[in-house]
TrEMBL record:
Protein name, UniProt field: Uncharacterized protein
Organism this protein belongs to: Micromonospora pattaloongensis
Superkingdom of the source species: Bacteria
Alphabetized NCBIfam families for the sequence: SCO5389_fam
Length: 130
């Protein structure tokens, strides 16, 4: 799943002249499922009293799974989304996305969520090929 980059944006990128807002808008338009998941957890993270908000529903299809993987596996895309929403994103099992307030990064709950133990505990046979 690649980004759908308008010619004008690509031209500006060739000369090194794009800003975060243009980049994030390209991500929003190109990866609408991933955008909806990240924007939803980020909005909940901003208002919850919990230490983080997460989305653990498997995507409805492979195209949506691909969008989520593309968004969260790319350092540039993930970083752009984190800066835009003001959260730290964490990812498990091809579909579980969590948004942590920046102040929670490095805390016990965050460290536990991103740990190898948490990854193994959240694994199941039906997720093996996700």
């Amino acid at each position: 799943m690649s980004l759908d980059v308008p010619a004008a944006l690509l031209e500006r990128a060739e000369s090194g002249r794009i800003d975060d807002a243009e980049f994030v808008d390209c991500v929003r338009r190109s990866l609408p499922y991933a955008w909806s998941v990240v924007s939803e957890v980020a909005a909940r993270a901003a208002v919850t009293t919990a230490e983080f908000a997460d989305h653990a529903v498997p995507p409805p299809g492979e195209a949506e799974r691909g969008q989520l993987l593309r968004a969260l596996a790319s350092d540039a895309i993930r970083g752009g989304l984190e800066r835009h929403f003001g959260v730290k994103l964490a990812f498990q099992n091809c579909h579980r996305v969590a948004a942590f307030p920046l102040g929670a990064v490095g805390g016990e709950t965050y460290r536990r969520f991103i740990s190898p133990v948490a990854q193994i505990r959240n694994q199941s046979p039906e997720l093996r090929d996700c």
